[in-house]
Design brief:
Layout (H helix, E strand, L loop, with lengths): L2 H20 L23 H21 E2 L3 H7 L1 H9 L4 H15 L4 E2 L3 H16 L6 H6 L4 E6 L6 H14 L4 E6 L6 H12 L2 E3 L7 H15 L3 E6 L6 H15 L3 E7 L4 H14 L3 E5 L8 H10 L3 E5 L7 E3 L2 H7 L4
Parallel strand pairs: 3-6, 3-7, 4-5, 4-6, 7-8, 8-9
Antiparallel strand pairs: 1-2, 9-10
Helix pairs in contact: 1-4, 1-6, 5-6, 8-9, 10-11, 12-13
Guanosine-5'-diphosphate binds next to helix 8.
């Protein structure tokens, strides 16, 4: 992830630094603005006065060569390139605003050495992104805390929901935890068979009803099944598209009312950028989500959704989907993200 953004960021930061390096200091640098004591020319020999002024001038010039201080106006002009780069890489506008404000606080009107500019911008950017990304909680530990632990997965069709459910079932197996899957997408043709295929490969039981059946009833049956067999987790698949958005959300609310999931996870594909962020926000506003799985990070060169979705929803990304195999589920690690942006 971030292949594209990393390269662009490096160039943009270097570009901004070069522009700043060439810029003469317009304001007196801190420490130099102290007015010299008023001299009394009538008592000073002309030669001595000339020497003093010349010395003062040289010191000021030297400081201007090594130090710089940016006004807000300079900053806004210089950082247009960075804003554009973030926008091109699918970073949400409200997140760009936060990054800009944080950078402004760190950089504007603060004198710093010209040779440290690049480092200063990188530091400010790293701090800002670090604040935007939330630390994930441990899903496996959560599952261990209650039996059966019920997880409902939400998201738009094609986003990788079914695959991610199978990956989570596999992850639980790796941690010696059993699960049952509920085929609560009774709307989309072939969705039940798709989940059953994963179930057969992973040897995980899938609870199904016929197409058109009440999705909440399927979830209810899966929970009853888990209770009767001491299964650790219930993983509920849900529909991703209905006739209208309102219908879909009403159906999701009913599943939540009946199944009372311990965790509601939004699954979205990272490659659609801002659309994934908007979808996560819509599900969060309608039913309230607890966490996010972002899929297809392996084919997303931009990475803006990963940088934006937590700030917009206030919920952490738990995992990134990084491929089509069951093991391709990577725990979200913000230090790794900052590293892949070249800001480590
Ligand atoms: P659903 O409609 O949301 O249930 O989506 P699916 O689970 O059926 O996934 C849609 C497609 O995306 C399938 O071809 C998956 O193999 C693929 N897919 C899911 N997750 C990932 C991922 O992390 N990386 C890649 N490259 N493909 C993925």
């Amino acid at each position: 992830m971030f292949g594209f953004l990393k390269k662009k960021l490096k160039n943009v930061i270097a570009g901004i630094s070069n522009k700043i390096k060439k810029k003469p200091a317009e304001k007196p640098i801190e420490g130099t603005e102290k007015p010299e004591k008023p001299e009394k020319p009538e008592r000073l020999p002309a030669e001595e006065k000339f020497e003093k002024e010349e010395r003062k001038g040289i010191i000021q010039k030297l400081k201007e060569l090594v130090m710089v201080k940016l006004s807000e106006e300079d900053f806004n002009k210089l950082f247009e390139d960075l804003e554009l780069t973030l926008m091109e890489n699918n970073v949400a506008l409200q997140v760009i605003d936060v990054i800009k404000e944080n950078l402004k606080k760190d950089i504007v009107d603060k004198p710093f050495k010209k040779k440290e500019i690049e480092l200063k911008i990188k530091d400010a950017l790293r701090n800002s992104i670090d604040k935007l990304l939330l630390e994930p909680f441990d899903l496996v530990e959560k599952v261990r805390s209650k039996k059966p632990f019920v997880v409902a997965f939400f998201g738009i069709n094609g986003g990788g929901k079914t695959t991610s459910i199978a990956k989570v079932a596999y992850l639980l197996q790796q941690n010696k935890l059993s699960s049952v899957m509920a085929a609560s997408d009774t709307f989309r043709a072939a969705s039940i068979e798709q989940l059953e295929k994963h179930g057969a490969k992973l040897r995980v039981k899938v609870i199904r009803h016929r197409y058109g059946a009440d999705p909440a009833a399927v979830a209810f049956d899966a929970i009853a099944y888990a209770k009767s067999r001491a299964i650790d987790a219930v993983l509920i698949d849900t529909a991703g598209r209905m006739h209208t958005q309102a219908n879909l959300m009403r159906e999701m609310e009913k599943i939540c009312r009946v199944a009372k999931p311990d965790l509601r996870i939004f699954v979205g594909e990272s490659i659609v950028g801002n659309d994934a962020v908007e979808q996560a926000k819509a599900f969060n506003d309608a039913i309230g989500i607890d966490a996010i799985i972002l899929t297809k990070a392996d084919v997303d060169e931009k990475g803006g959704a990963a940088m934006s979705v937590s700030h917009v929803t206030g919920k952490p990304i738990l995992y990134l989907g990084i491929g089509q195999h069951y093991g391709d589920l990577e725990k979200f690690n913000k230090h790794k993200i900052i590293g892949s942006l070249g800001l480590e």
